[in-house]
Model the fold of this input.
Amino acid sequence: MRSSETISSATGYLLLRLANLASARMEEALLPFRLRGRDLRVLAFVQDGELSQRDLSQQTGLDRTTMVAVIDGLERNGYVRRERSPTDRRKQLISVTTDGRTVLSEALTALRWAEDGFLAPLGEDERRQLHRQLSLLYAAHDPRCQTDDTSELGLLLGSDAAGTRHSEGPTRHTT
Amino acid sequence: MRSSETISSATGYLLLRLANLASARMEEALLPFRLRGRDLRVLAFVQDGELSQRDLSQQTGLDRTTMVAVIDGLERNGYVRRERSPTDRRKQLISVTTDGRTVLSEALTALRWAEDGFLAPLGEDERRQLHRQLSLLYAAHDPRCQTDDTSELGLLLGSDAAGTRHSEGPTRHTT
DNA sequence: AACTGATCGTCAGCTACGCTGATGATCAGT
DNA sequence: ACTGATCATCAGCGTAGCTGACGATCAGTT
Done:
């Protein structure tokens, strides 16, 4: 048995390597827009309404401190604006500018091109299937999409258990 | 139209975020083995035969300089050995130790546990489908997995073309 | 045998990322 | 007015990956 096959055939491994490759392509596609991947990610959510940086952090999954830098960049390029919330002056409400809206739209299009290229090896149906499975999995894992009762805890325990208490499973006696 | 839906529904986006989540779990699962994700990745390929660090770099997709550090770590833990090739004394042939073999096997098992947990939200069939699509896509993109006759060149051109010529697509006049 | 160009491993140094912890400003409740 | 919590921000840490350079070694040429 070749162990490389063992690991190459692991779904998680495939996921990671493919994400790497896809990421490279996407970054490349976004280059001319002066946007990094995470910038677009944030920008896309900004357009949904007047959100605070905190909100954006949670929605995008980025760290709150990272968000500062991202917004800085977007603001420097004139894609978004910072405004203190009138009701809660601690918050910075982030709003997209017309420039930002334009760039977002163009960048998303460019991204789709890149994505299409990346997924080209798959047929129409396979692509749809892939998208569906990924969506399901993402919905199940993203804390943002959880119904409040099941809550993060339940799922974490449910699936993490395999990882955390693997003292029952494969153990490693730290020599 | 909410643009967050636009980007959240992008397959590439899902791929990236899921890879992030999966990666965190896998790293966590490997913790007790004193292995990082990339360590295991390398270790798995080491077992395939006596490969040079150069070979490993290409196979795993890691940088040649990164490989030095990875091998250093693996060697420090006694999982692999460095030996100069007798036929080409520039090369370092990396071979796995019995300790390394044991750890690899255990770690792979732990990884499967974690993976199962992560994929739990999907049904049996969905999981299989997902794995299949990912495999296909990976095979199409990874230069290493190409059948030797078609050769790296052919498929690279075949699939890269769609991504490379996106200059035909939406362009951005760098003002 | 000497010379040239290429290859391999290694190292120093740079850049970028994400995170922790602390700080000042602000809010909500008492 | 006081206390505790929340928000944005900043400094700093550790890590990852990459570039560029270097010595050692190989293959081919003369």
In short: Chain A has eight helices and three strands. Residues 52-54, 64-65, 67-68, 88-92 of chain A lie near DNA strand D (CB under 10 Å from a C1'). Confidence is low (pLDDT under 50) at residues 147-175 of chain A.
